[in-house]
Protein 1
Amino acid sequence: MPNPDAHSEVPNSTVMPMESVAAGVEGLRITFVNVYGVRTASGSWVLVDTGLPFSAGLIRTWGERHFGGPPQSILLTHGHFDHVSGAADLAQAWGVPLYAHPLEFPYLTGKKEYPPPNLEPGGGLMTALSPMYPRGPVDLSRWLRPLATGPGAEDVTPLPGWEIVHSPGHTPGHVSLFRPADLTLLVGDAFCTTKPESFFEAAIAQEPELHGPPAYFTADPQQAARSIRLLANLHPRVLAPGHGRPLAGAEVQDRLAQLAVQYAGEPGRGMEPGPNLAAA
Ligand SMILES: [Zn+2]
Ligand SMILES: [Zn+2]
């Protein structure tokens, strides 16, 4: 049984500023969620994820200022509201397509809702609030295009030089993005670099720690554990998560390997509920 409380501490020295996560990669944090811009070889760029409701204006201004104009496309790691809420406005304003994994389409085309949040693991303010989060359905069909994964996909990816890694578990069609040239990994919500149940506290003061995906919204923890293992096996040196701060350095791959083992761990280990739930 996966252990949602598994975590692996990472030295503070690995924390990267959002403005320079890796070559051509910049991030923007809006409250507790990050979006990223990734420059392409052709000089254009791709926006990865679109943040919370009412974030579209901020993301648009930031992106155009930092990358010199609209992106060529938008890529969604998955369909949770904190990653897709700006998608319709941005796709409309920029006139660009939205790419997502086909298994995520039912949640992005108004056909299906995500399962209700799992309130047992974790604890903390975010978990207590999670029944109030919108679970969809959003309908982005007008702009949506399927992301190709696997062999041959490089030819049609909206982001040449990056592998689209299907990393399900948090959601069925969750993807991460990996650039073999410098071992940079955009992880979406496959795992976090902060304790996911306390994103708001984490915004003020946080020691970097690798954690599994936000437990209250992770549909299939066992599959999520396999995905963390898969990502650890890429031996990334730069981690750019949807939640938490970007990290870089030789240590991160060891700590991620550690998380992969711990997250997949035995039942009963570290499963006590968090202390914050009653207070929240
Ligand atoms: Zn998510
Ligand atoms: Zn998220």
Protein 2
Amino acid sequence: MVEKRIYLDHAATTPIREEVAVVLERGHREVFGNPSSTHFEGLRARDALENARAQIAEALRVPGAQVIFTSGGTESDHLGIRGSLEAMEGREDFKGGRVLTSQIEHPAVYGAIDKLDPTKWQSHQLAVDSTGRVLLDGLEAHLEEASTSSIPVALASIIGCNNEVGAAQPLKEIASLLHAENAWLHVDGVQQLGKYPLDMKQLGIDLLTITGHKIYGPKGIGALVVNEETLTDSIEPLLLGGGQEGGLRAGTPWVVGAMAFSEAVRLAVEEQGRESSRLNRLRRLFREGLEANLKGLEFNSSIEGCACHLVHVAFEGIRGNALQEHLDQLGISVSTGSACHSEGGKLSQVLEAMGRSADSIRASVRFSFGKSNTEEQIPILVETIVKGVLYLRNLAGYGESN
Ligand SMILES: Cc1ncc(COP(=O)(O)O)c(C=O)c1O
């Protein structure tokens, strides 16, 4: 049993950081008005909301971008994909289109694609290599084929850094290939923000999804960021009603959440370089520790070209969920990283797409590092995990001593 619990599931969610807690507390005390009201309290809330919006655009270095507050990553993915494609359906010259994703998207993206009208949209998942990187050849081939047909590619939605293994995508190359065909790029940047460089303009991202709870901000708030150069009035709202968020997302916004979220975004961007170096060092030490003490490891995340917080590894001879439960009892929180979705025991599509065998997928565990983790924890983690793996291998009758 470790003396103090060690949390290694920051890809699932993060605790609220102190600076954000201060904003939440102050906001709840001082700002309660409805930003649609025209009296003092309403105007105060509206100012706070607009300042939060401006702070996010500024932090992402897209001061002219449109920031639409939503309930989080899932809703932003839906608004970015369905909202922009459904707006295209309304154009006079619309005769159907194609939408591309990859084989390693978050379920929220697949959920949005599934909601599209199949008589209007064809969807296609781009293949990835064994590290989880989208194969550009596949994209090029698809764009070429589409350019000679009457059904053009309208949009691709690509996860910036994957939530299971962390693989970072060649977004700049993807954007320039898409833009050459007048197609847009939506990026789910939920796991990328604060973990890996994310410069919307430089990368050519048209629509960006972000969420508060993965960056030490509140749960239940996120945003879709729309690059001003690409899209202005081309999004169809999913929620209709009071016309809030410029008519793009009805419902009284959570002003205090937006204030706290904007502070979390500002700090995540400001600290990204330093925090990434620190977490990369922890990941390296952790990985070396495991490699020095155990055989039969298959790493699904690399150190280079990967979000700095994730180590996803298969331990031959055991079940990932058995190790996860064992470690939980010893005071260490990890995840099987969607290795096996609870309903129906379906194997991770991400790992399958990366060419991993079913046994390897079932033997996988996701360790995701964050602010609460320190270098002093690494030897404790390595020792506890090595003992746990050997214990479980022994129970399973796995041949070797390590
Ligand atoms: C890559 C990615 N996209 C979207 C989401 C969904 O975000 P939210 O929980 O804010 O709806 C998550 C959260 O697990 C994620 O990791």
